[in-house]
Amino acid sequence: SHARIGLVGLGVMGANLSLNIADHGFPIAVYNRTGAVTDAFVASAGDLAERLVPAQTYEDFVASLSKPRAIIIMVKAGGPVDAVIADLGPLLDEGDMIIDAGNANFHDTRRREAALREKGLNFIGMGVSGGEEGARHGPSIMVGGNKASYEVIRDIIEAISAKHDGQPCAAHFGPDGAGHFVKTVHNGIEYADMQMIAEVYGVLRDGAGRTPSEIGALFEAWDKGPLKSYLVEISGKVLQTADPKTGQPMVDVIVDTAGQKGTGRWTAIEAITLGQSPSTIEAAVAARSWSSEKATREAGQALFGDDAVETMPMPSDATLEKALLAAKLIAYDQGFKILIAASSTYDWGIDLAAAAEVWREGCIIRSALLDDMAQAIRAGLPHDQLIFAPTFADMIREGAPALRRVVAYAALKGLPIPAFANALAYFDTMRQGRGTTDLVQAQRDFFGAHGFERVDGGAGQHGPWAGTVSHS
Ligand code: NDP
To answer: How far is Cα 272 from Cα 292, in angstroms, rounded to an integer?
Structure first.
């Protein structure tokens, strides 16, 4: 029998995505480099095995697909994707399509799309978020590439995606790398979101001496309010979990050095290339990098010890909640600005509201706020700023004093909160009509004759610096 779709790479994500596709009634051809994995996968698929068409060679795999062929690749990002494309390409016919569903760097997606297009093949870059559970029961899906080829598989993709009020959390964002770029920015925002929650945990733990289960209960309560989100929910659960081995809180037995696979870093790098500076995301990437220097941090603690200058009472739980909400909105504001800049640079025509909409369910950053964000974006963002939209401007007005209080408290107490501090600095910069770059411009003109613009008109002006240097 012929399947409309096939999948290569039966690892964690590929296996679950295949079962999800089969579960929605679509027969699917499956292939894995290590053949034994394919056999074990089919053997453990239960009733769904009847919709799986396993193959042990690429030839059999390709032969089991109806035309135009649609093949999802779900292997390790990077070299392995190129290796699979090199093996599959020669077996495919004009009009067939390859869909890379891994966490690709969008530059690779653009390169692969161009190379395959020359050969008459279609290449779709498809970001998938939601981890193992999402892949099996409904991920959030961000698609880029030829729109007409996407239309061929759209029913399958929408069927397997998460739903928000019945609407699929899957969308096509533009040609070539647009989908993978939206996924990358999703991950960047995810980094900031996670870091900010961890910073609140740090303030409560090291400032107020709260236990993990107390903090977890607070997060659980916040998950019923405006902060309702997957990440706050799981943080609450994690903090209230005990280590089966020692009985201690689970977080207390976990070494505080965080891993990263690169997508958060890519967001920061691409943003800077685009002239953006998503300082909250950069701070989250930095916090993970710094965390890996554990021995250095321990030496620093021995050297500098407690550096607190406490002169402020601990902010209340309600203040922390408002501060987290404000900081989070600022992180999303920065994330959306990266998408706006990339869409214009690469001519993608990304529908920003659609990004907020596909993130409402299925993905790691899903939250109650995303529906409001989508509506605010549809209504038009003043100056491309999410936090300037009326609903969010009101929230920021209410949350900013809380954010200020938390940042001040942490600074005096000697607690690091890089993402919160950057969120506040960004907000204060964006609400200051006259900044301090006039002096920077003067400095640049003084030492390099770079010129400046005068407030009373005229670009390329110079200051009367000659003879003002004193060598005392
Ligand atoms: P796994 O490590 O579980 O699976 C890797 C798969 O890649 C295996 O099927 C492996 O085959 C195959 N593979 C590796 N190298 C090659 C190669 N050179 N040629 C052919 N096949 C190869 O990975 P995941 O399922 O976790 O991740 C897959 C992709 O999905 C990655 O891009 C990842 O970043 C992305 N992703 C992962 C998420 C997660 O939560 N895990 C969430 C969202 C995206 P073999 O059995 O032969 O080794």
So the answer is: 23
Distance CA 6, CA 46 (A): 19
- Domain assignment present for residue 358? The answer is no
| pLDDT for residue 470 | 55
Please check whether residues 39 and 13 belong to one and the same domain: yes
Q: Does 297 lie in the same domain as 206? A: yes
Q: Give yes or no for residue 341 CB within 6 A of ligand 1.
A: no
pLDDT bin (cut points 50, 70, 90) of residue 472 is very low
Please state, rounded to an integer, the average pLDDT across all residues of the chain.
96
- Ligand 1 site, residue 159, Cβ cutoff 6 A: no
Domain endpoint, select from 180, 198, 215? 180
Per-residue pLDDT, 307: 78
Q: Are 164 and 203 in a shared domain?
A: no
CA triple 310-316-321, angle to 5 deg:
120
Which residue numbers are catalytic? 183, 190
* Ligand 1 touching residue 127 (CB < 6 A): no
pLDDT tens track for 69-103: 999 999 999 999 999 999 999 999 999 999 999 99
> Which is it for strands 140-145 and 70-73: parallel, antiparallel or unpaired?
unpaired
- 233 located within any domain: yes
- CATH at residue 31: 3.40.50.720
Give yes or no for residue 40 CB within 6 A of ligand 1: no
Pairing of strands 52-54, 70-73: unpaired
Domain span holding position 141: 5-180
Instruction: Say how many Å lie between the CA of residue 27 and the centre of ligand 1.
Output: 22
Count of the separate structural domains present in the chain: 2
Residues 47 and 117 in one domain: yes
- Distance between CA 349 and CA 123 in Å, rounded? 18
Read off the pLDDT of residues 365-380 as tens digits, 9 standing for 90 and up: 999 999 999 999 999 9
Pocket test for ligand 1, best of 33, 38, 75 (most atoms within 8 A of CB): 75
In a domain, 369, yes or no: no
pLDDT of 261 above 90: no
Is 187 marked within a binding site? yes
Residue 277 inside a domain? The answer is: yes
Q: Does the annotation place 191 within a ligand binding site?
A: yes
Tokens (6 digits) for 383? 């100056």
* Crossing angle for the helix pair 230-239 and 178-202, to the nearest 10 degrees: 40
Q: Is the CB of 401 under 6 A from ligand 1?
A: no
Residue 31 and residue 123: Cα distance in Å, rounded? 19
pLDDT, one tens digit per residue, over 306-319 is 877 878 999 999 99
Could you tell me the CATH number of the domain that includes residue 254? 1.10.1040.10
Global pTM reads 0.95
CA distance 138 to 159: 9
How remote is the CA of residue 376 from the centroid of ligand 1, in Å?
Answer: 37
